[in-house]
Amino acid sequence: MIRFVGFGKRFGAQRAVDSLALEVERGEAVALLGPNGSGKTTTLKAAAGLIRPTEGEVLLGDPGRTSRDPEARRLISFLPQRVTFPEALTGREALEFYRALRGAPKTRVDEVLKFASLNGAGSRAVGTYSGGMVQRLGLAVAVLPDAPILLLDEPTAALDPDGLTAFYGVVERHHRDGKTILFTSHQLGDAERLADRIAVLVEGRLVATLTSRELADRLADRGVMRVRVSGLGDRTWGEVKVIAPGTVRAGDELVVPGSAARRPAVLDAIRAGGAEVKAITAEEGRLDALYRDLVRTP
What we know:
- By secondary structure, the chain is an alpha/beta fold.
- It folds into 2 domains: 217 residues, Rossmann fold, CATH 3.40.50; 64 residues, ACT-like. Chain A, domain 2 (Alpha-Beta Plaits), CATH 3.30.70.1150.
- It contains 11 helices and 14 strands.
- The chain has a 6-stranded mixed sheet with strand order 6-7-8-3-9-10, sandwiched between helices.
- Strand 1 and strand 2 form a beta hairpin.
- Helix 4 crosses helix 5, helix 7 packs across helix 8 and helix 9 packs antiparallel against helix 10.
- The model has no long low-confidence stretch (mean pLDDT 89).
């Protein structure tokens, strides 16, 4: 339903996206992950027809039409990273305006107010809304037309817990209904919960496509457990090295890299050998470290 065919975009001398080749199938949810400035928003805006490619093209639907084609634009609904509405309008009035613009049934206004957990605030002026409520109103506008393709740019960035729950519910429902979803996020949790696949952009280049499980596994492999022990004998130390070969000993602390799955066996070996565990800390792999590894991948 969405195809980036050698898509590239430059802004003057700055190259935002470089030769992107990516396909999103009908009914698939794909997350675009990457550090700031990696080209995620530019990619999403190109799919929405808001940015003209410098190179290549972006095709929507089947058969594919360029994203700048009015017929293609009817297939999409786009939630930008920052949403604003006239503050004097009520939430319901703002939704009614966009409903008429997209030709959606009148019943959709009440439905999306409920979806976005705004049904109790629809009669209030937008100027009285919190930032999270404005973001939820933007989500309500995005799902108004029941379009087959949803494009969501950092949709959870300003959401409070209630808004986050509402967002997950809306996207999961659309996914179950067979909608195609392409969204950007800095949050691994969003990708793990919502995405079938994850595309990682670094400096405008696609460096990896992974399932959410594959990404979680790769991050877990970069995790570290630190164990402070007393009375660790050489034999027990040797057993620990067999279980976790990359373990480093620094005084009374063991630094155990790798997946969390091996940590219980390490702790069991330490205790079985008669050593005492004084303290344990653990941290999982960081996305920014993974980005650096990926960008160095040939």
